Amino acid sequence: MMxxxxxxxxxxKEEKPLRxxxxxxxxYLLRVADxxxxxxNSSAAVLAIPLSAIGSQCLGSTFEIFSSNALSGEANGSExxxxxxxxxxxxxxxxxxxxxxxxxxGAHALQLWCFYKAKKLDEDEGPPKYQSVALIIGVTGIVGxxxxxxxxxxxxxxxxxxxxxxxxxxxxxxxxDHPIDYVQCDISDPDLTESTLSPLTDVTHLFYTTWTNRxxxxxxxxxxxxxxxxxxxxLIPNAPNLQHICLLTGRKHxxxxxxxxxxxxxxxxxxxxxxxxDLPRLDVPNFYYTLEDILLEEVEKKEGLTYSIxxxxxxxxxxxxxxxxxxxxxxxxxxxCKHEGxxxxxxxxxxxxxxxxxxxxxxLIAEHQIWAAVDPYxxxxxxxxxxxxxxxxxxxxxxxxxxxxxxxxxxxxxxxLEDMMKGKEGVWEEIVKDNGLVETKLKEVGVWWxxxxxxxxxxxxxxxxxxxxxxxxxxxxxxxxxxxxxxKVKAYRIVP
Length: 496
Known about the structure:
Elements: H1 6-11, H2 18-34, E1 46-50, E2 62-66, H3 93-101, H4 106-124, E3 132-137, H5 142-150, E4 161-167, E5 181-184, H6 190-197, E6 205-208, H7 217-238, E7 244-248, H8 252-255, H9 258-261, H10 287-299, E8 306-312, E9 315-316, H11 326-340, H12 350-354, E10 356-357, E11 360-361, H13 362-374, E12 381-385, E13 391-392, H14 393-404, H15 417-420, H16 425-435, H17 442-445, H18 448-454, H19 465-469, H20 478-491
Parallel strand pairs: 3-4, 3-6, 4-5, 6-7, 7-8, 8-12, 9-11
Antiparallel strand pairs: 1-2, 10-13
């Protein structure tokens, strides 16, 4: 049986924005080159891309890359090369992009090509010389995974970066491509944390992006506080060049813990949105407050050590291991509806369906943290982090249905995803087996309670004014972000 072309699966069947298409195709081609496809002995090895699968924005109808020397350099010493697909033709990513999408794509392709050339040049010159060394705690989480992708890039501010990534579990296959040093460690164990992290004496920047969940907030405060203290009490004395710590918290800073913010709306005095960073703390236990207090206490122990605190909203990103993965959970739900031939019903309130919401793209959060880590004007501050636009879930629900070819039902009051997904473990096993997906259990990829919580009330908006005033101008189109992360969940074979 012929193996499915992975590029075609990555692109999917739906037409996508031009920039998204360029990113997908070029990043795939660079990945092919990095993995050594061009080193195969057979000069006849060909990667064929039927461009009809990419959409109407393509100019051509077919394109072939001879992998024996493709992407290894400029074509015959110039950008001309031979005829397309002919002997001696060595296409660069810029060529590929221009042939796929026209001249307008050249500049973006050239950026990726320069990254690839610089990367190969570094490899040819021997061991790389790093300016900064990052330690990501929670590297398989939804933001940690984005940091692991972005930090090693040659044009990332503060770079070149060496990156250590810490997680409790063995390294998953979907994280294995990132050029990082993976460190398995359960940071809730103080002795293990000390023995594992103390040798990392070259760390200059800490990105703390993990958390654990307990049934009540006082237990959350204790468990999460202990984890952060274990890391800081090990790293600060042992990493003499440590310069900055980025702490990821979230919008619960303004609305309180899960057990109160949605379940006790009438008696709980949360702040009125849009939220800004100077609002006072709420008079309730909140493990985000505990983390901030520990951070400030530990930073005082090292002269010149700075920090930043980052407060995103609902995060759009990719991580099958995340406790708050709304994209992945919705993808799993949609896949089950598709498999069973039933409509995609919205599990939430009228306020969530009709009201305005916003989101925080995981890559944007990573860029936000890197900016704060290297920009002197952003030191020792707390910042909100969101995409900068708003949307309604009733509109995005149609987008979700389109991505999976599922009919969307009309709004129904009182539906809960946790109730609808009870007993679906066997259905998910069938879906995984029938589609050759990565083996997962339904409880691992479907965080039903979190989606029910997010859809139980109106959206809570924040303000990005402080970030803009301090020099961060990043943003994301939330609809494009939503679709691109769905594509990534599919590309990594988590859902069909």
